[in-house]
Amino acid sequence: MADPLSHWEDGVEALPRETIVDVLESRLREDILAGRHPAGTYLPPERTLADGYGVTRTTLKHAFGRLTQAGLLETRHGVGTRVRDYLRLGGADLLPMLVRHSSDWIGEIFEVRRSIGALIAERAAARATDGQRGELRGLLAAVGDAADPDAVQLADIEVHRALARATGNRVYVLLTNTLFNAYLPVRAALRRPFTDAQVARSRLEPVIEAVAAGDEAGARRAAEQYLTATERIMLEDLA
Questions:
Q1: Which residues are 75's β-sheet partners?
Q2: Residue 17 dihedral angles phi and psi, to the nearest 5°
Q3: Cβ pair 167, 120 in contact under 8 A
Q4: Which residues pair with 42 in a beta bridge?
Q5: Residue 214 — left, alpha, or beta (φ > 0 → left; ψ -120 to 50 → alpha)?
Q6: Which residues contact 60 (CB under 8 A, 6 or more apart)?
Q7: Distances (CA, A) of 175 to 126, 172, 239
Q8: Which tens digit of pLDDT belongs to each residue from 100-130?
Q9: What is the pTM for the complete model shown?
Q10: How far apart are CA 123 and CA 115, in angstroms?
């Protein structure tokens, strides 16, 4: 049976070439992540693969370029294109793509979020300046004032970014960004902890108060409680 991509190539459906590349990239990515093209193995020759997907070699090369940039493929001139061992060699920048492939990754992301978040709160309590404490209180108030669940969730994220900045360690800031970006593909399904702005604010308030008081152990405990509670709600919704 002919692949539907071939109909687009033949002009049966007037879609721009970029759309064909999008579809092929998605198909190849799913085949790689599902193990149909195992890590460390070489893909079939370009002509064979292009025929199998019902596309031209030009379209295939464009898709290869994207997947190489994403860290899933590597091309060796004169040898071929190999599936990269992304679990051994890849970085956290792959997480959004992996979450789109399977929501099973969310539980593992939340485990790291819980550990890192508690450590960040502890460090922020030890290192925050007076200006940063004031900023955190202002951002907490913005959570309670947000107009809808989406706005509450985004306001909550800004509090956590500010906590990371208050540690004085830029790596914590980048890790915080990475973890939020990781579950961005399913963010819409994770809004229930933020449906009531005042409840969301009160849930987060003990973290900010402990940080503002310079209570390192209290900030860590409060962050662990906050992250555990919101994680449980979000995972229930995903399930």
A1: 81
A2: -60, -35
A3: yes
A4: 82
A5: left
A6: 24, 46, 49, 50, 53
A7: 19, 5, 26
A8: 888 888 889 999 999 999 999 999 999 999 9
A9: 0.77
A10: 13
